[in-house]
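tmp note - DUF1450 domain-containing protein
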Amino acid sequence: MGVVIVEVCDGNAITTLDIEGIIESEFPEVAVLMNECLSFCGLCRVKPYALVNNRRIFGHTPDECLDNIRQAIKEELAVYQ
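out:
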């Protein structure tokens, strides 16, 4: 398991991308966990989001969200370098 954990809700628009494959190939030290529900239903219906080490990261589109997730991962990994 990675030092950074990205959690994604199965019903969220971010799943239109292969978020698990993309993130884990770019950042081998990151674990992506797909969940049935993360209990943020209001946010899930409005915009794509994920949790990065329990911090909510979102964007207006799945691609924007992915870019924001990448940035959050880089910030988290900087702590360990």
